[in-house]
Specification:
By secondary structure, this protein is an alpha/beta fold. It has helices at about 5-10, 45-60, 85-95, 115-125, 140-145, 150-165, 180-195, 210-220, 225-245, 260-270, 295-305, 315-330, 335-345, 345-360, 375-380, 380-390; strands at about 15-25, 65-75, 100-110, 130-135, 170-175, 200-205, 245-250, 255, 275, 280-285, 285-290, 310-315, 335, 365, 370-375. Helix 13 runs antiparallel to helix 14. It is globular and about 55 Å long. Mean pLDDT is about 95; it is low at about 1-15.
């Protein structure tokens, strides 16, 4: 049955929208660059789903008149779940929360998990957007990353998704690996254009501490990344996507008109969200909390009716710094008016003063009291944001 909001709730004049993130901590195998929380054994899958549903049931809502606008199954690899398991989780959501009739409900999937039965089941359960972890259309790169799927599966799954009736989906691509030449990078993006993929998320390969990739590089068994090459491929990507008609609405995200990710956009605009599952984060506007990143601890705690989490209350300065960091990543940029309204005139003036040197060096522009990164500025986004912090 489609997920619907009741007529009674529709009559509420003030509706606060929120999102929900669900962490599914299982993967078929470990990608060598990944530092997210996951397990490659499915032994505890049944117990974890039961614990996750229990967490949903006992979690207090932020406010009584909220409407949930987005749900996102992330991981890990949510596509490892059976259709009945996805349905059970969504039914628990429907009983606990009021969902918008136009809610964006996304599920991350790997190409090797996609088939007609899975796609049909996802649609019938209420999933209306997919995020596909393709990473590359090149076989050698996929092997180098230790991905579980093949280049042929990368290509085929896009056709399967479209044929099943999904008109809203995204794919992930990684650039800047030692194997990726500019010509192969162009081929990867040309496939996106040829297949009219509505949304694409592109990330520079990052060598995270305590990952298999970091260890292999330290042992000189794999080549390290090249920052100059990554910058070049990012600049090429921005040019190609713009020419193809994609909106570069966040540093790592590009969308055809009307196909922005509503869920991720809510993070960047500072909206509230719930997080369920081990390692999942929640934010109520003032306080951030995160669940234990341990499957066994999570399960055993929920069996006792206890959610294993830590939390911190953000100071006004921390909230402002988060706004600076996230807003600069977006196409709309950092609103001086919003900073002044939320934190005071002094802060707006100081941001403008600190930003002046980046305007002079063509890394920032000020348009209608919004600070917006240029293409060159996007290469230094984190550093510029940090320099504007309080």
């Amino acid at each position: 049955m489609p997920l619907q909001v009741s007529n009674l709730i529709c009559k509420i004049l003030i509706q606060k929208l929120a999102g929900i993130y669900i962490h599914i901590p299982f993967c078929r195998q470990a990608c060598n660059y990944c530092n997210f929380h996951f397990a490659t054994s499915l032994r505890l899958k049944n117990e974890l789903i039961a614990a996750l549903i229990n967490e949903i049931n006992i979690t207090p809502v932020f406010e009584g008149n909220e409407i949930i606008d987005t749900i996102y199954f992330g991981g890990g690899t949510p596509s490892l779940l059976g259709n009945d398991e996805v349905k059970r989780i969504l039914e628990a959501m429907q009983k606990k929360f009021v969902l918008s009739t136009t809610a964006e409900i996304s599920l991350e999937a790997n190409p090797d998990d996609i088939n007609a039965d899975k796609l049909s089941g996802w649609l019938s359960s209420g999933i209306n957007r997919l995020s596909i972890g393709i990473q590359s259309f090149d076989e050698a790169e996929l092997v180098w990353m230790n991905r579980a799927h093949t280049a042929a599966e990368s290509l085929h799954c896009i056709d399967e998704i479209k044929n099943a009736g999904f008109n809203n989906f995204s794919i992930d691509l990684i650039y800047g690996s030692p194997l990726l030449t500019n010509d192969n990078w162009k081929r990867n993006t040309d496939i996106v254009f040829e297949k009219s993929v509505p949304h694409i998320s592109c990330y520079a390969l990052t060598v995270e501490p305590k990952t298999a990739l970091s260890k292999l590089i330290t042992q000189h068994k794999k080549a390290n990344t090249d920052a100059e090459k990554q910058s070049e491929q990012f600049l090429l990507l921005m040019q190609w996507m713009r020419t193809a008609g994609y909106e570069h609405y966040e540093i790592s995200n590009y969308a055809l008109p009307g196909r922005r990710s509503k869920h991720n956009s809510s993070y960047w605009s500072g909206e509230k969200y719930y997080g369920f599952g081990p390692s999942a984060h929640s934010f109520d506007g003032n306080c951030r909390r995160w669940n234990a990143a341990n499957n066994s601890l999570y399960i055993h705690s929920l069996q006792k009716g206890i959610i294993p989490f830590e939390e911190e209350k953000l100071t006004a300065t921390q909230r402002l710094n988060e706004y600076i960091m996230t807003s600069l990543r977006t196409i709309e940029g950092l609103s001086i008016e919003k900073a002044v309204a939320g934190f005071g005139k002094h802060f707006g003036e100081k941001i403008l003063l600190s930003a002046k040197k980046y305007e002079d060096s063509n890394k920032l522009t000020c348009q209608k009291a919004h600070l917006i990164l240029t293409d060159e500025g996007k290469l230094f986004a984190d550093g510029i944001a940090a320099d504007l912090f309080f």
